[in-house]
Amino acid sequence: xxxxxxxxxxxxxxxxxxxxxxxxxxxxxxxxxxxxxxxxxxxxxxxxxxxxxxxxxxxxxxxxxxxxxxxxxxxxxxxxxxxxxxxxxxxxxxxxxxxxxxxxxxxxxxxxxxxxxxxxxxxxxxxxxxxxxxxxxxxxxxxxxxxxxxxxxxxxxxxxxxxxxxxxxxxxxxxxxxxxxxxxxxxxxxxxxxxxxxxxxxxxxxxxxxxxxxxxxxxxxxxxxxxxxxxxxxxxxxxxxxxxxxxxxxxxxxxxxxxxxxxxxxxxxxxxxxxxxxxxxxxxxxxxxxxxxxxxxxxxxxxxxxxxxxxxxxxxxxxxxxxxxxxxxxxxxxxxxxxxxxxxxxxxxxxxxxxxxxxxxxxxxxxxxxxxxx
Length: 374
Fold this sequence. Notes:
The chain is α/β, with parallel strands linked by helices.
């Protein structure tokens, strides 16, 4: 793995190892307003490096924001980019630095400092960019977008509100479970996925209930990175494909979209409602057993896994249905076919353990409404 990982509350000192003299810092406005960006810029001053701060990152980064960042980079002429923030900031930085490199034919050093425990983007070659006009999200992938360094400082996550901690934590769990049952999984990705699941199981509830619990925060930050390593090698599956389409259409936070879908996707992939179980059932059963969930058969064990996930969602106050999010049911029903078509065409669907039909995806979307969709 290309990325060098620094961990712990003093890990930012590792920024001084960067071969960067002109740093372009990409973050959202809150990082500047809260003074968090100063933690980075003060170190850059100590290094004798010049810098410029681009703080126009928005949730679900758009093509327009990436283009703005590139224009500022052209004017500044950086030799390195530092991404400070959640998945939106890191994805913006990865896409902007990748395109800048292509335009200027100059490779930039890329460092990521995640401030939420969710995306794992600091160790992946993925970037998800939104097109608001098309109401679509586009997962981009290139080895050139893999960060050179990642700094896992849990202090940045302490101020994250409970509902965002819950959403991003469920994103970690989804990353790990999808990587584990992916058709491209390996012993190495399985090892990272298994550890990530165990850490989420033990620490997500604690982190949501007490945001100042630094032990739990540290473990969740590490879990996010481990899950990122897992899915960077194994890719993802149908849950992410459907979450991309759902989030783009109704502007639901990505982690929450994944969480609402996850129990339904596990049931579908494992064949829990079919007469015969699917091949993925054994893998779900294995990871459930590792988390201390066991029953007489693989199917019964996976039923237990789904129940435990729903219990965790209740504990951290994640709703079960999209109709609990004040989304109009009629509007949702009308969007189901288009969302299903986008999910079927999404790259993440390629590595799902069960090959879905359009009608099956539509049926799963229908289950997200209380009482179901016709």
